[in-house]
Amino acid sequence: MKYSVLPILILFVLAMTQPVQSQTPTYQNPDAAIEDRVEDLLNRMTVYEKIGQMTQLNITTINPTGKQADVELVEEKARDLIGNHHIGSFLNGEAVPPEQWFRFTNQLTRLAMEESRLGIPIIYGIDHVHGANYLEGGTIFPHNINLGATFNPQHSYNTGWVTAYETADLGHHWNFAPILDIGVNPLWPRIYETFGEDPRLAARMGESYINGYQRNEEIEPYNVAATAKHFLGYSDPKSGWDRSPAYIPKQAIHEFHRPSFQAAVDAGIKTVMLNSGEINGIPVHGSYELVTELLRDEMGFDGVVVTDWADIEKLVDFHFISENFKEATFRSVMAGIDMSMTPLTLEFNEAMQALVDEGRITEDRIDESVRRILRLKFELGLFEHPYPSNERLNRIGTTESKVKALEAARESIVLLRNKNGVLPVLNPTRILVAGPSADSKRNLAGGWTLAWQGANEERYPDDMMTILDALRAEYPDADIEHVTKTPSQQQIDAADLIVYAGGEEPYTEFVGNISDLTLPQNQLDEISRLSESATPLVLVLVQGRPRLITSVEEKTDAILHAGLPGFQGANAIAEIISGAVNPSGKLPISYPESPSHFTPYNHKPSANYDFDEEDANQISQVSQPTSLYPFGHGLSYTTFTYSDLRLSKSFIGENGSLSASVAVTNAGNRAGMESVLWFITDHVGTITRPVEELAHFEKIALEPGETKRVQFEIQPSEQLSYPDRNGQPILEEGYFTVKVGELTKEFRLEKNKDD
Ligand code: BGC
């Protein structure tokens, strides 16, 4: 034999005795632990591939026209960005039919899975902030300010749940909602995106949204990620304009701005988006103190931190804290961001590579962020189920979902005024309907609807009603006349009612900046003119923030604060006017009285100025600052009475609890819902305490004559302590007052008392 077979034999035996090596890399093995998959994938990636995962680009970088509305893919563009620059995330779009979204995300996913070196799935981000607002046929819920007015977290849960249900199949993995900024400056154009001014209300509504959205089991095999935005203090700019500087003491950050975000972290929120603005002279995108020390170290957030739109660039050309994009990138990454919503260029990728080459950003630092991003992708199951599905499109815009939106709208409308019980109007023969929102769909839906600024009227669905349509449907036998010019005296006299629907047109972000909160003069003039007759006048305010109506308030007979109630909003308004629905909304924000003076409910100055007459005369004007309508105000067609407030004891120990309860009776003759709001006042505190603080709320339904006892447990660490400037809890002995309705009772905190 010329060649010995021995070596071949040995090789054969060796091969047969080796354990069978899996061909599947660990990161692609669905049975491996997520942490092992992350590490395995990370070890296979080049630095530039990792940087790509930290980048999010806008849809306009991969579509034909560079227009937001163009949900079409140009494969060569996407192939270059994904194949050569390893981009891991894209965002945005506008409302297009579900089939089109499906085609687009399917094609995009195929490129990422089949044509990139490692087959890492894309994570697609979108702003479905009040239902599936970037999807034709999607269910559009009221905006958050309305959800706040319901004081019913179920509606916030439903909003999240339906949004996931309608969009998860379409490759919308990541929703930039909920907005957890608290609505403290009524001029701010994003007030309507908030749940109102109260931290506890925002926290409860936010966590309910997150539970509804992230934990929706009906969307299996998909999973989705919510975003708590915009961390932190975005909503309190000194000028009232979007993205303008805020000055917020550290203590106030902890006490007022942190709780809603903390609740989101505790509820398992997967991502956080940063505030585009600056606090105390430091843009949040460059603040190690806020992003790493506060959000991560103190608050315990371990998910993905994404920048807001082009906010690294803004450190250069808006905030002027960095000389160029590379320095801005360094500042922001070292502050703690994980992903840059760059979103139009590859500047971030280039800057990062340069910073790595210069040794200023280490691969370890990059790994920290990429680990979080990959972990998110694994947790969402994107490696196993990267492709969208078009098999359940019948889930979009179902009757059940629309009913959920309608129920939310009904409970979100606030009856501010009802002189002589003018509402409801049972059997009118003739109603005049006037004002800029009388026959408008877009005004009811507000910004972020179908398009960023709210789409043109023609794009709204045929089955959505305007207030005019809804009144016609509600009163089929009445003559409902739309008046676009000042009606004649004869027209007015012949009517049983005038409905004037005013307020605001849609706007989003800085586009809604205004310098005067007063309702536009032409509307005030029209309201005044219409109020001159004996025909009752109902003012319906369709608006994103509380526009001042002080000069006309007394001239109206009734005022309905409709806010931005969404696609079912007009139906809810008409049902409330007719009495088919009993209003139960309460204001989640104080309604200001005067243009230059805003008073958050929990800091209103005490009413008990103690002047003797002589002193008072010296002061030319002792004004009593107040709101036109306070936080929590809202009328019903029935009357609720509160009685028999009881505390289980008169003191509470540091680790004890005290139960407060009250009887609430429906003393009127129709069924209704009542949000029971409990407030606590700390009599003395080392740091000035809020005059009133919402401690708890609960919404109940009562039949006529029915009484329910409502109860809540006061726990020192929850309701009686407050943070110092470092976020550490202060718990001080002394007296507290608990208030519900107009009833109050005192109790005392005695730390060492056993109970
Ligand atoms: C807004 C965010 C939004 C993002 C993406 C920004 O301008 O501030 O709220 O999520 O754009 O569209």
Short description:
By secondary structure, the chain is an alpha/beta fold. The chain starts with 5 loop residues before the first helix and ends in a 6-residue tail after the last strand.
Can you describe this structure?
The chain is built from 23 helices and 28 strands. Strand 7 (278-279) and strand 8 form a beta hairpin. It folds into 3 domains: 26-394, TIM Barrel; 413-592, Rossmann fold, CATH 3.40.50.1700; 638-749, Immunoglobulins (Immunoglobulin-like, Sandwich), CATH 2.60.40.10. The termini are far apart. 31% of the residues lie in helices and 18% in strands. The protein is α/β, with parallel strands linked by helices and 755 residues long. It binds beta-D-glucopyranose. Beta-D-glucopyranose binds next to loops.
